[in-house]
Amino acid sequence: METNAEAQRNILGLQLPTDPRWVDLAGISMQEILTDHAYCEQKAATTCISLIQRYSSYDKMVNELAPIVTEEWGHFRLVLQELKKRQLVLGKQRKDEYVNQLIAFQVKGGSVEDRFLDQMLTMALIEARSCERFKRLSEGLPDAYMRNFYRRFMESEAGHYALFIELAEFYVNKEKVRNRWKEWLEYEANVINNLEVRGDRIH
Ligand SMILES: [Fe+2]
Ligand SMILES: [Fe+2]
Fold first, then answer.
1. 97 C-alpha vs ligand 2 centroid, how far in Å?
2. What CATH number did the domain enclosing 139 receive?
3. What is the pTM of this model?
4. Any idea which of 4-18, 43-57, 132-146 has the lowest mean pLDDT?
5. Domain count, the chain
6. Which ligand is nearest to the CA of 150?
7. Is the pLDDT of residue 40 over 80?
8. CA–CA separation, 121 and 185 (whole Å)
9. Ligand nearest 47 Cα, by number?
10. In a domain, 17, yes or no
11. pLDDT tens column, 71-97
């Protein structure tokens, strides 16, 4: 029998190519890394708020996501602090082709359950990708302080990934979650491959 933790690890064993935006760390400035990161945290917080508004009767989800809003906003503030330390400003938000393409794959009609499931799985993927990005930064940045900085984020986003999968499985039949997750993984791998082909990095 697969334990829940094992099952989640297997799911996280994403057969995903590495996000090309984060391979060549040497070619990315701290300004780019921090600005991009700051907006990711901000979006994570605002998406959690939208989910709470949209699914206000989903008691467990509301209670679990409420503290995540605070946590993600705290992350945003930590990144702002790092920008400030370096006399950098937040700057403009880039167009996030990756997230836009994920949103395009979400079911638009269908049942509330189907839409909810896709929203949970989109968030799970985004968290998994953040986790991967922070892992790379925690291993590849030249500065020891920043490597440690990103190690903490990596752990936190891994926890969020697991939470979104858990919420999906709480409200939706597990088999259905698994099957849809497989479709998402396949789709997402293609999105990443296409980003790579086009040579997109972080803007
Ligand atoms: Fe975060
Ligand atoms: Fe997160």
1. 19
2. 1.20.1260.10
3. 0.87
4. 4-18
5. 1
6. 1
7. yes
8. 10
9. 2
10. no
11. 999 999 999 999 999 999 999 998 889
